[in-house]
Amino acid sequence: MKKAGIIILAIGLLITIFTGFNFVTKKKVVDFGEMQITVDDHHDFEWSPIVGVVVLAVGLGIYLYGSEKSAT
Q: Which of 6, 24, 68, 70 has the fewest CB atoms within 10 Å of its CB?
């Protein structure tokens, strides 16, 4: 469980630092024989830094209070 907690902590840190990303898709508007017209559509995907802090807290809780399997 400790490894999962560390991974979730790292993801939470990345989510807190990077609060979004954007990407571009191409959309064909006109296709008339050899002539083609395309338009770039810009898409933004953003989230609040609070989401990252919550994920950090969950990862920390799993790291601190998660049970480690004992070798018996």
A: 70
Cα–Cα dist 39/68, whole Å: 53
Q: For the residues of 16-58, what is the DSSP string, one character each?
A: HH--EEEEEEEEEEEEETTEEEEEEEEEEEE--HHHHHHHHHH
Rounded to an integer, what distance in angstroms lies between the CA atom of residue 52 and that of residue 14? 7
Neighbours of 26 (CB within 10 A): 9
- Give me the residue label for tokens 């480690």: 68
Distance CA 43, CA 25 (A): 8
pLDDT category of residue 10 using cuts at 50, 70 and 90: very high
Lookup: tokens for 15: 């989510």
